Amino acid sequence: MSDVRRLLVVEDEPDVREVLVAYLRRDGHAVIATGDGAHAWQLFTAERPDLVLLDVRLPQVDGFELLRRIRERGDVPVIMVTARDEDIDTVLGLRMGADDYVVKPFNPAEVAARVAAVLRRANRSTVAPGRIALGRLTVDLVGTQALVDGRPVPLTASEYRLLVVLATHPRQTMTRSQLRVAALPGSAALDRVVDAHLTNLRRKLTDAGVPADLIGTARGLGYRLTPPDPAR
């Protein structure tokens, strides 16, 4: 199997787009690029990229709408690009399922490194065999998926890895820093990024029928997964 990854760069500033494409191709990736949101959706559906580097501000169709459509199709890693360090853009993108984010102006070499880190997380298979049963929820460590009543829950790679860390440390309070190091290696993520991913994870599990108290918040400390009582 080829190690070449197909990347889609969606950036409406031509100079920035060209630099990003050059750096990513230098790293051995196959890169397609566009500056238009509508064209980006056409490329995504036709090319099925392994990762999308997605600017928030785009003509025709903006980055948030593209992210929503991408998440409806699956868990392809997405790194959002924001024009300035605005919490509203960052948090909204993460809550919608983005795996990471970068803020303009940025060093293109740093962006390339962030892309490599997200690809490693998305493609790394866990070494632990078997499954973890948590009531109606099963964490399949071989198939790298979460199942509720046998049906897959559409988690992103970051959400799945956070679930694995919590599920393999039941009843143990994990700090945000511990979760970030274990589940998001190579990321420059802040605590709010971990919070956003956990919010998405809990919402998806709850929507699938998992009790809302499976993953609890230890105020001022972090998060804890408490397995359901088998007698319940």
Give me some keywords for this one.
232 residues, alpha/beta, Rossmann fold, Arc Repressor Mutant, subunit A, 2 domains, five-stranded parallel sheet
What does this molecule look like?
By secondary structure, the protein is α/β, with parallel strands linked by helices. It folds into 2 domains: 6-123, Rossmann fold, CATH 3.40.50.2300; 131-225, Winged helix-like DNA-binding domain superfamily/Winged helix DNA-binding domain (Arc Repressor Mutant, subunit A, Orthogonal Bundle), CATH 1.10.10. Helix content is 41%, strand content 21%. It has helices at 14-26, 37-47, 63-73, 87-95, 108-123, 157-167, 176-183, 191-207; strands at residues 6-10, 30-34, 51-55, 78-82, 100-103, 131-134, 137-140, 145-148, 151-153, 174-175, 215-218, 222-225. Strands 2-1-3-4-5 form a 5-stranded parallel beta sheet, sandwiched between helices. The protein has a 4-stranded antiparallel beta sheet with strand order 6-7-8-9, covered by helices on one side. A 3-stranded antiparallel beta sheet has the order 10-12-11. The longest helix is centred in the C-terminal third of the chain and has 17 residues, at 191-207. The mean pLDDT is 86.
In short:
The chain is an alpha/beta fold.
Question: Which helices and strands appear, and what pairs or packs with what?
Answer:
Layout: E1 6-10, H1 14-26, E2 30-34, H2 37-47, E3 51-55, H3 63-73, E4 78-82, H4 87-95, E5 100-103, H5 108-123, E6 131-134, E7 137-140, E8 145-148, E9 151-153, H6 157-167, E10 174-175, H7 176-183, H8 191-207, E11 215-218, E12 222-225
Parallel strand pairs: 1-2, 1-3, 3-4, 4-5
Antiparallel strand pairs: 6-7, 7-8, 8-9, 10-12, 11-12
Helix pairs in contact: 1-5, 2-3, 6-7, 6-8
